[in-house]
Records
---
Amino acid sequence: MRKTLLGLAGTVALLFGLAAPALAFEPVNVVHTEKVQAGPYDLTIGFSTWPVKAMQSLDFTFAPENGIEGKKGTLTLFREGVEDDGGPLARHPRKREVWGLDIFALPEPGTWTMRFEVDGPAGAGTGELKNLQVMEQPGPPMGLSWAISTIPLFGLIALIVVAWRRTRAAVD
Amino acid sequence: MTVHITATAASSARTVPRGLVPASAVVGGTLISLIGLTWDIQWHSDVGPDTFFTLPHLFLYAGSAISGLASLAVVLLTTADSKRGKVVDPMVGGRAVGVFGRTFAAPVGYLISGIGAALFLVYGLWDQWWHGLYGFDAVIDSPPHIGLLLSISITMVGAVMIFAVARDQRWGTYGVAAAAGTLLAFSMVTVLGLRALPGGAVNTVNAGSAFFSVMILFMGAYVLKRRGGALAVGIVVALLQAVFWWFSPWATDVYADATGLPLRDYADGIPGLPNMIPMSLILVAVAVELLHKVPAWLTGAIGGVIITACAPLQRMLVQGSNFPALERYVATVVAGAVLGALAGVLGRRFGHMLRHLAPAKEDSHA
């Protein structure tokens, strides 16, 4: 019993020992920026991957020139002019001094627009990042990815069919 | 004969019923997976930053590892017994089937739970490749994530099979309710994959939730085939929902504190996974109990209607969401009735199929 407990404690210690250094989260690495003028506010839009591809997640940062202190706002996303998503501008979880979206993907390729509505000490202002070109998704077609991923489901269905046939006489 | 008498004498001397330990390890593993999933979903919505080695992820990996190793141990022991010419007790996981010819003798329940755990490893690799290509998105319904969730579901189906064999014993009865309840709660996340399907006016996730919850509830009820069977599964699900309602935001807060990470701005703290479980399921369970003389398709249809009709109400109550467009609501409830009827019939049949896993008892009745 004591040996078992010692073994378990050792395993837990090893797991946490390994997990602790691995918990260092990746810094936000901006590789491309765009500028947007939202009324009196100069916004710098940062991208951690460029060019942007559909379904590929990246960090977006939205940095007003004099910081986010005392400011609030909303972000609305449009694809081909049609509203797709939106919400209040929130601090980036791994770069708290700016607003941002963490590991966020734009779902479809095409021309996207980001509209910023910012309210702060200098008043309210609206600005748009237009013509954000989002390229086709990388990797295999989604049909193939779904086919690979649902093999367990079809395996389960096959098992059910076999069990159904074998128990038909007994159950019916 | 000598072997049989020795086995009986040995089993009567035991304090723990034969088969209970590995069965508990498998269902315990699936519960750990469910805890990991509810915690992980909450972590992504309320905190965010992700690595391969977050604590919720470790729970997810550990759950499948525990179930998988327990299944492997039973398969190896059964194989050893069978090679030595010992009588293999079918009460431990069901009849043994040959794997790779006759290389292994695997009790069918443990074979399925073990296959699920092995698939989890394979889909883990597929998920790693996916993240390399698409980035470390926190999208729950990406194809590899659905593959991982389906793999865990297969282990959970194996757990139901293992307990179904022992349903005539008290631990088997409780085990069926626990394993079926765990599978039901977990499936409410897997159905998010249905968002990828074109549903027209129908909310495919709500309709899918109705289908799977009615099917699994009926399956559990018909395996147990006694008054209170459906209610037992419903109560297990309600208990999991209640505990996770408290646990998911609490564990997320504690873990964020421990790692020095702040909560997201605008994090609403609404429990993610528990809120995907229909609160109305307990009504369906009561309906199944009260209408036990009504054909399964009709009770199933009623169950499907209850779940799809109440789903938007739950979201209004918890999240303050708006009521959906009437056309979408009606279309989803109609789909819920049709799918619920099908689920009732299938669940009843699956329950009977699972009863057939215990050979000795069934044969003696035949």
---
Amino acid sequence: MRNIFAFIFRYHAFFLLLMLETVCVALMIQNNGFHRAAFLNVSDEFVGKSYKVYNEVTDYIRLGEENRLLADENSRLRNTLPNSYYADTSSIKTVRDTIRHTLYHYIPARVIQTSTNRLNNYIYINKGRDHGIKPRMAVIGPNGVVGIVKSVSDHFASLYSMLHSQVTVSARVKQNGSRGTVKWDGKSPYYVNLEEITRQEQLHQRDTIFTSGVSRLFPDNIPIGIVESFDLIEPGNFYDIRVMLSTDFKKLDYVYVVSNIMHEEIDSLINRTEDVQ
Amino acid sequence: MYSRVPGHIIRFMLLVFAQVMILNNVHLHGLFNPYIYPLFILLLPFETPAWFLLFLGFFCGFTVDLFSNSMGMHAAATTLLAFFRPYMIGLLKPAAGYQPEDKPTISSMGFLWFVTYVAFLMFIHHLVFFMIETLSFRQIIFVISKIAISTLISIALIVTIQYLFYGKRKRSEL
């Protein structure tokens, strides 16, 4: 027995190393899932506050660029307003929203911290549980898809960026409507890969890629990017398509968190259907 | 001895701040990720006990992890770096042994000693960190070049920091 203690004491540094590395591995595994332990939310809140202070300082530098982007978006939205169309017939067909249900709510938020240089990138935003944000909500920017909410604290939320090796988004090619999956390969923050498009489809360069709405997270028709290049992997049935992202993740500032009101209803329906099978 | 403790704490805070707020925002084709915060562990006094080094390594990495949402990855790499530090110091021992007033800095131990010391330990740190981050051999060439380039840049940054902040004081004493 004494020998065992003497042995442990002699190599105490090594045993301590093993112990600490085990803690590290446990932390990594725990952090991998969609949900994180409650105690880490406290640190999220602290980290969020630190980044917020830092951002308030650096915001002024990019004010001009942000104003231009917001103005662009405003003009685009204004174009969709009914009163920006010229009515050339006497019978005006007005879309009455009272007969439709709202399906999506958009919660505006600001990015307080983001990275693009790692294999798994995350984004922090300045809205959280108090503003109605929940894990697994979709996030879009002025130019298109941004990411998915990972975890929320009271006033902040962390997102899986589109530039994350585990994030996949169901996508649709504009011209022929074929559906595939968009994934990041971990290299350039300007490009993603579109997979699962079969060789029968006709593709064109500079064709736009939208979200398909199949994923239930993202609304339909949110732009992802444009086709930069494509070739067939021989021998194989699928295209290898490189898509240039429409969102510049390095300059990301204002985003919208999309809350799907019927998300739970659809989810429970799908769960019930799959249970029966 | 007591008077040096606040200095180490301030250095720790400055390095983590510089790492998280400045260097984590440096991007170049995803190839270029320098990490300088391990300098805190590298500059601790020679007589720091091994177990304390390990705890500090873990704590230091964990703090950076909190800010980069990479739970456990920096902590694992920095703990391993702290584990290898005493062995590296042993390997590099000068013929006359270490003097009581020696510190693991460029001004105290000289350029060659310091660069060898930093290069080996930073290589271990970057190797472990980037391997954990990828966790596969699919893009092995990309990861190897990422490790090599980032290690070189980190070493260059650390040596520059040494000359900027610690070089002058010693020279005026000489």
---
Amino acid sequence: MIEALISPEVVEQHGITPQEYLRIVAILGRDPNLTELGIFSVMWSEHCSYKSSRVHLKRLPTAGACVLQGPGENAGVVDLGDGYAIAFKIESHNHPSLVEPFQGAATGVGGILRDIFTMGARPIAAMNSLRFGRIKSSESMESPPQGRAGSSTPDNEESELRQNRRILSGVVGGIGFYGNCFGVPTVGGEIYFEDCYAKNPLVNAFALGLFERDSRSGKPRIFLGRASGPGNAVIYVGAKTGRDGIHGASLLASSEFDETTASKRPNVQVGDPFLEKCLLEACLETMEADAIVGIQDMGAAGLTCSTSEMAARGDTGIEIELNHVPQRETGMSPYEIMLSESQERMLLVAERGRMPDIQGIFSKWGLDAVEIGRVTKDGILRVRDHGEVVAEIPAKALADEAPLYNRPMKARKPLALLEKSSPRLKNLESVQPGDAFMRLLSSENLCSRRWVYQQYDHMVRTNTCILPGADAAVIRIKNTNRAIAITLDGNGRYCYVNPREGARLAVAEACRNLVCVGAQPLAATNCLNFGNPEKPEIMWAFSEVIDGMKEACEAFHTPITGGNVSFYNETFGKGIYGTPVMGMVGVIDDLAHLTSPGFKREGDVIAALGDLTPPTEREFLNQGTEFARVLLNASGAQVPALILEREKRLQDTILTLIHQGTLHSCHDVSEGGLAIALAECAFASGPPFLGCEIEIQFGIEGLSAWWFNENPSRAVISFEVGQQSRIEAICRRQEIPFQILGRVRKHDFKLKHLNNWIIQQPVDKLFGLWDQELERLSTL
Amino acid sequence: MKFGVVVFPGSNCDHDAFYVIDRVMRQPVEWVWHETDQLKGFDAIILPGGFSYGDYLRTGAIARFSPVMKAVRAFAEGGGLVLGICNGFQILCESGLLPGALMRNRGLKFVCRHVYLRTENNALPFTQRLSAGQVLKIPIAHMEGNYYASADTLDELESQGRVVFRYSTPEGAIDEAANPNGAARNIAGICNRAGNVMGMMPHPERASESLLGSADGRGIFESMVKALVSAPSSRLAETVHD
């Protein structure tokens, strides 16, 4: 075999440390050849092996009565009862989306969809959590933002804004391109803008699929990525293999970025959603025909990952012949074929006799299905090229025996609080709450996401019961009286300030969002986006986030059934806020309980559930609220306190109220505080819109802190007058504070405090401001 | 009575159309694979939304050459009811069963949202259960829905009552602000001369249950069922005032 010699430089180029190399030599009992080195480099990359995170991830709760499949497979699976089940997962595609926003985001969607239908579930909903650098000029701010003063000229800033808008447009376009053609509704998600994401955008794609009841067994049929039965055929299906995406997992996803970023564009894969749609149908038909014993998609690390993981899980080996792999380019080397990340490919394992059935189904959908090898007994991944062995590695060494690192950690010092004498705090006194309200409505983080979700087909498959923009997306399950509710939540700013508390707050908000639409939270998936894990403060933050998440998930009985870790979100050594994103899934047992945020009827009573006591002005200023960011350019040094027991009690109370049929609307109070929550209830009521008249009769110290604080464990509800005593009684029994705020009215949005109007405007006018802003910014 | 829902490999609203006929309208319905070249036994054919063969070239440009479209043409000539929704409308135009073309939206972006449609002709087998001028709330979801035809063709369509739906305000006014994609004269749906082939960009199958936010689209399927109950498919026609 003629191959390049493995020099220390070649080892380093593959992102393998000298110690790791010695380990490879020990496993093989010899030096690897270049193909083998490439195979080890992708399988032992951070992206595929979770080598820095695994010791921490073990602490997360993963078991629960409803969990049919926990972490370790392509997606988690949760039981819905009556023979129905759902598979769901969230995954990052951050690095490719910086290098090539449109294709990076598109293939992120393609990858997560494959993870779902690999399990045998038909994808019925997609969502995404996105972070970008700011797109709104700081000229509209009181003073230059913290940390940027003096460093950025207006010209520089303008070009940065343009760059961020370009990434936003590309990512949104790519998500729509893939999901719309594939035919999965993109039903919601979240988007935030913050400086730290400027050269490190986050694109976390979530998908959920449904297992129908199997007519024979009455149970859902779950397919696993296992190569069982030595002698069985290993079958390659889907798109042909090209040179795209080579080293996507190892070089793109597992290292920091610098000025050479643009040159990494060829490492980004290119997506073909039509082909994936055909692949979906063919795979589901093959499963329905009971023709396969195992299946795994070829995502990160392509053929390498799918063969070694399937063999490792099946306690078997796999031998393949590269000459049989369908190729769309000529002259590809074994190294390139094994490492290609060409999209829309799957690996199947089937009994030999089923090959004609499988080929029949795939050819009906215009796709290749080629036997490229077989399952063996010896536990070895053996790769041949025209008969010659080009790689021979124990499968488990690749899939399960990557080095585990317990990387050094160092707690970061708490951030300095702004003092009462700070000029910024002085600014607070000069802010009129009415003006602040208008500014917040058109803040890039609070304004309507319509411009984004209108580019996504969010109704295909005719299950979408609540349109995007509500607390959670709701997807009905046809032929049942049930629905699934889904939300994605993350708060990078909180997690930066206090990783443990930030993670707890994210889990609490995710559960609260589900409860507000009438759903019982069931289980979660997480996407953990962080900087370089080799930096002790980042590793510490990661560990803190895991502990916070564990504590909160245990309190809400929501196990985590899988997810994804994305490290190295750094460019020029500057990292993102560590940003864990929760994908939380719940079930609505009776469609009659479906609840939405919009006001429903004029004259209804509006009330708040939960403690309205505001933080002190100093706390408020330091809490990293949207108010502080927009009005005072303060990014925060503390987070609001969350008492899990109280939060759980609030959520149980809301569900009781909904189940008893007392509520007309329910909405979580979050970013922008109570005032923005009320506005959102009005905006969701139409058109034509209902408004509200809110009158606060008691004295309030610090009006802005009262209206705009972002304390957790609160919700705004509306109901018919006649229900009041019943609702109050339930709240009293559960010891949940209940405060009447006002009434639902026609047309106008009015907030009043002790006879002083804070805001008094037609809802149409406020809606226009809120509704148009993102579209305006994106087209600047 | 039997409905058929055509399945191209890239159809993705096929299940939705099938579900509405089967579970909402409770009528017999079968799948029709794109390689089928005859439609014996069917009374109405639905060409659903989606991306027929990927549509990377031009929407419906490849579908027009498919075996099933040859069969659909013959079926339509025999008087059978053909409803093309979204991609189905695009394919009907490409195939020459309906005049005009669907260009990229004025805003150059995919648009998915509820719009309002004013019923311009309620004497068709597709609209007979609707009232004249009735405004329907039905969603659109497309990148290429900007209807274009020459001025002469547009005049002819209008004079023959072949403009079936126009984008309107909730009150039924036809204005630019109500036009989501730049379609000529706010046209959302048209029919052929005989009135048995209709194409529309909005998705009535997504607006046939109130749980989904509107049941206004149901009237279109109810009209088709009524037409099929009251007349054998071969004699449906002449409902357009020529």
